[in-house]
Every structure is written in structure tokens, then in C-alpha cells.
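ok trying again, last paste got cut off:
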Amino acid sequence: MRSSSISEAQFELMKIGEVAAMLRVTRQAIWAMRKKGEFPEPITALSSKQPRWIKAEILDWIKQRARLRDEQVAKDRVAAML
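nice, full thing came through this time. structure:
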């Protein structure tokens, strides 16, 4: 068993179908968001030419979207009170 300060889960690679299922969107939606620069870029796995996404980056992207949503909700509440 090896010891590491970096979790292996941080570098788990996901196929597009897995990412789509996790986000409950279509594969086409992922490619469209990526093309617009709104989604993390995939990497090409060494053993395959198929693109893969780093799970930690997808989870960070989800957290960032949640933060942006929360900030917008707070702004909307302040604006409604004025």
C-alpha cells in the first residue's frame, strides 16, 4: 500500500458518458458547454485516445456553479428589498 498526500480520487478519470450521467445532461450539452469555455477541458488518457475528465475538476465546476447561484440569489434578495 502506498502513501500519498494526494487522494487517488482527485485524479479519477471519467468518460463523457459518466460525466453526462453525473450531471444529468446529454453528451452534446457537455461538448457545447466546453466549446463555449463554460466547462472543464478533457484530457486524453495515455491508454486511449478517448477524452477523459478529471473527476475533481468536475466536482470543482459544480461547486463553482453553486457559489455563483448563491451569489446571484443574495443579490436578487438585496435588490428586492430596495
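cool. The chain has one domain: 12-81. The two ends are 59 Å apart (CA to CA).
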